[in-house]
Amino acid sequence: MSASPLIQSVDWAAVAPPLIVAAAGLVVLVAELFLPEPRKPLLGWVSVGGLVLAGLSLIPLLDGDRTTFCLTAGGKDCSYVADHFTLAVQFLVIGGALLTALLSIHAVEEARMPAGEFWFLLLSSAAGAALLPASRDLATLVVALEVTSLPAFALVGLRRGDRLSSEAALKFFLSSVTATAVMLLGVSFVYAATGSLHLGAISRGLDHVDPRLVTLAHIGAVLTLVGFAFKLAAVPFHFWVPDTYVGAPLPVAAYLSVVGKAAGFSGLIVITVLGFGPYAHVWGATLAVLAALTMTAGNVAALRQRPANAHSAVRLLAWSSVGQAGYLLVPLAAAGYDDKPQEVIGATIAYALMYAAVNLGAFAVAALVGRAHPANRITDYRALFSERPLAALSLGFFLLCLAGLPPGVIGLFAKVAVFRTAVDAGLGWLAVVMAVNVVVALYYYLQWTALLFARREPVEAAGAAGAAGGSAAGGPVPAASADATGAVAALPVPIPLTAAIVTALGLGVVLSGAPELVLRFATGTLF
């Protein structure tokens, strides 16, 4: 079986978004060698500019689908497709990376992280995540997934000398390597059964697999999903999440919670709907069980994070993100039971867009609070409204969106859209599990929201306790004075951090005012 040659011409406009992000990373890496130490903060703004330029490069692609790196014989399969689905996910990835960059500009300097390495790693990972939804063969998918993951390991452990950061990076790395090994085994099984790595050819080949290789093809399809399920933090590949988020620099945790999930769910959508369509009865049931287990495990664990026990707010957000991943999987599972899966998974895109905006906003407010309370405990948010009313109102809105309660209408709208896909697909049991989990999640979201507006209780030596907690967490302890009630004097808020909060809040408010626009956009962007 001879390999088919590739067309030598490249559609540079189609590959521009990930290419610009990657080029910006190389520019930052080289520029860091020549910039004196006082000028290193400029690297952050160069990164922001590169991400903005990559976002603008999506606009010319809206006029129609583009393909490149296509076979010249044996079919018209292509390795890179810039269709509307690709653009929607790339918009999410680049937008999420941009907000992460705004969160990171001052965090890199304050935590004394190496600026050149940080920005290069962040942009490299974002380039891989932007490439992933456009990939249409298993080789490119695996490469894109690893380009997304490998820099993320280093980002988590970039706070040198911090024990928690090093442990988080090691756990993240070992878990991911194991998942990747299993996924590569699955890819080899699929290739052995179908004789191709292109998703279109795999889909056609699975309809005519040699009867002796049917079991091999089934096992290969399930194992291939493992790597993407890991990035999505689906059970049982979720145990790395809480320790990694707490040990990582806060902007990196925010990045993993949004862009990492975007990479995972886009990979799952592409590989299941376009590659494993004939085996929908296999992956549909598998993803339904994973969705139920993931949302339940995440919400139950988040329920145990109590203010009275001085638990970390970041750990609560980590478990919340696991629960949200379960909701993202519901439409994918429903797609396995639908004759038109492209229409069903529009709900996943809509939910992911809502989740990205409000979750990054929640992490942005957490970064603001963490400047005065390095331990970032849930109790540190008590009476935040009396100290920073706008930050408290913003965080309250973000939490209500995640809970699916007014005025966070976009959260309610997205959950209803996801719930309806399960009902329409005949997955009544999954709809019931989701409804129960939504009710469970209300408790910890509302508990945190109520804490923002509660009265501050007098606590002796609160400032010393906060400093001790910050030292234990491995983060820098900013200079701040504590009053008799334990409140910490307001610190100046960096302009990029304010911009990140305002941008996320603006997106949430606009989408809550016109929630139908999200679903129309999502359902109109699929393949």
UniProtKB/TrEMBL annotation:
A Gene Ontology molecular function term for this protein is: quinone binding
The similarity annotation says: Belongs to the complex I subunit 2 family.
In this chain the NADH:quinone oxidoreductase/Mrp antiporter transmembrane domain maps to 135-438
Q: Name one GO biological process term.
A: ATP synthesis coupled electron transport
InterPro entries to which the protein is assigned, alphabetical:
NADH-Q_OxRdtase_suN/2, ND/Mrp_TM
> Its Enzyme Commission number?
7.1.1.-
* Record's GO cellular component terms: endomembrane system; plasma membrane
Q: Which UniProt keywords apply?
A: Cell membrane, Membrane, NAD, Quinone, Translocase, Transmembrane, Transmembrane helix, Transport
Reactions performed catalytically: a quinone + NADH + 5 H(+)(in) = a quinol + NAD(+) + 4 H(+)(out)
User: What membrane topology does this protein have?
Assistant: Multi-pass membrane protein
Instruction: Supply the Pfam families for this chain.
Output: Proton_antipo_M
| Summary of the function given for this chain in its UniProt record | NDH-1 shuttles electrons from NADH, via FMN and iron-sulfur (Fe-S) centers, to quinones in the respiratory chain. The immediate electron acceptor for the enzyme in this species is believed to be a menaquinone. Couples the redox reaction to proton translocation (for every two electrons transferred, four hydrogen ions are translocated across the cytoplasmic membrane), and thus conserves the redox energy in a proton gradient.
Q: What is its main location?
A: membrane
The species is Wenjunlia tyrosinilytica
**SUBUNIT field:** NDH-1 is composed of 14 different subunits. Subunits NuoA, H, J, K, L, M, N constitute the membrane sector of the complex.
* Gene that specifies this protein: nuoN
Q: Where in the cell is it found?
A: Cell membrane; Endomembrane system; Membrane
What is the name of this protein?
A: NADH-quinone oxidoreductase subunit N
Task: List all membrane-crossing ranges.
Answer: 12-35, 42-62, 82-103, 115-132, 138-158, 170-193, 213-240, 252-276, 282-304, 316-337, 349-369, 390-414, 426-446
Reply yes or no: does the keyword Cell cycle apply: no
